[in-house]
Amino acid sequence: MLTSEVRQAKSHLKSVGHILFRKPTHIKIADYSKLNLIQKSTRFIYHSLERMIIQTTNMLHKLEDFEKPSVKGQIRYLENSVKDTHMPINKKITKSR
User: According to the lineage, what is the superkingdom (predicted)?
Assistant: First the structure.
């Protein structure tokens, strides 16, 4: 209701300005209650989408932190690199527990 009153006051001030400068007044008839409802619902949708985006990014960060890389692949890579250089491999040191 406050928004519609402010809009009406604004249109009245514009009409006064047109009268003072001897310009034709433009009377715009619009259904402000429907316009207010659309603005409120648009703001609500925007804020809810913004909250959903924040929650989704937080969940993605948690999932990325949850995934732990496997050490076995790195051990195999090191074993293969050592085999390529023809150095003896000490199995007891590289064995994962």
Answer: Bacteria
Amino acid making up residue 45: I
- If phi > 0 it is left, if psi is from -120 to 50 it is alpha, else beta; for residue 80 that is alpha
Whether pTM > 0.85 for this model: the answer is no
Helix/strand/coil percentages in the chain, nearest 5: 75, 0, 25
pLDDT in tens, 42-51: 999 999 999 9
The number of angstroms, rounded, from the C-alpha of 82 to the middle of its chain's C-alpha atoms is: 47
Neighbours of 62 (CB within 10 A): 9
Residue 96 to residues 71, 72, 93, Cα–Cα distance (Å): 8, 8, 8
Do 25 and 19 form a contact (C-beta atoms < 8 A)? yes
- Nearest Cα to Cα of residue 18 among 7, 6, 26: 26
Q: Phi and psi (nearest 5°) for 88?
A: -70, 145
